[in-house]
Amino acid sequence: MEHRAAERVAPEPGEGRYVVRLPWRGRSVEVEYQWLAPAGGDGSGPVIVFLHEGLGSIAMWKDFPQQVCDATGLRALVYSRPAYGWSTPREADERWQPDFMHRQAHEVLPELRRALNLEAPIWLLGHSDGGSIALLHAARFPASVAGAVLLAPHVMVEDISIESIAKAAQAYATTGLRERLSRYHADVDSAFGGWSGIWLDPGFRQWNIEHEASQLSVPTLAIQGVNDEYGSLEQIRRIARHGRDVALLELSECGHSPHRDQATQVIIAVRNFMQKNRRQP
């Protein structure tokens, strides 16, 4: 695959993991990324771009992206957003604003696609904040998106979300959570502080992307667990009410991470959805 931007191997060991430098908002940021290919397949067809959760990174997906590649026969791009993994951390005085997910969807991801020559329609697969970013990108750039899979996305701020994030912030300060997360981020305080800081900011309570959901026209599969501790099922149900081509999957015995709690069901659903909605050349 042709790469338009210079790249180098990421500073942490990882097979096929690289870093690319992107211009963003008047500065240069490095983004860690990894290509995956399906076992026993040619990987032809649209690339699946994975967008991680609010505390995620390439490494935190573990083997789920590879399992999706193998099930669908498609290649994948997995990357860590700025502030996460081994991408450029937040600056010391940087505080995210309520439009932080819009910036990722409308600015960072398009720059990454240009740098890596991903101009053809892509599949988007996002979890939590990454699911919201996938929705925003698909709504803004429908001609270059084949479809989207949203795992436990957010379209509004609920009390349950704030309560659970406040508990996570307390655990980060008082338990071994910080140490556990540090395995996945070069600067763990950058990752956690950016995420918890904006979600717990009173100014974020009015954040809502239902208008953007109404502009969603690509095939979309929204998946959520009935026991999600970070949001009610109203999150994906509102996407279905507003979007034009949205299928829902509500999973029992499943919390905020469907790809971990019900991995087999999710992989089968993703495979069937992508096969059903594969564009004909």
TrEMBL record:
For this chain, one GO molecular function annotation is: hydrolase activity
Matching entries from SUPFAM superfamilies are given as: alpha/beta-Hydrolases
Sorted alphabetically, which Pfam families does this protein's record hold? Abhydrolase_1
Q: Which Gene3D superfamilies match?
A: alpha/beta hydrolase (3.40.50.1820)
Origin: domain of life: Bacteria
Q: What cellular-component terms does GO give this entry? A: membrane
Sorted alphabetically, the keyword list is: Hydrolase
Q: Any idea where the AB hydrolase-1 domain is?
A: 46-153
Q: Does the keyword Nucleus apply?
A: no
* Keyword Hydrolase applies: yes
The identity of this protein, by name, is: Alpha/beta hydrolase
- Which source organism? Diaphorobacter ruginosibacter
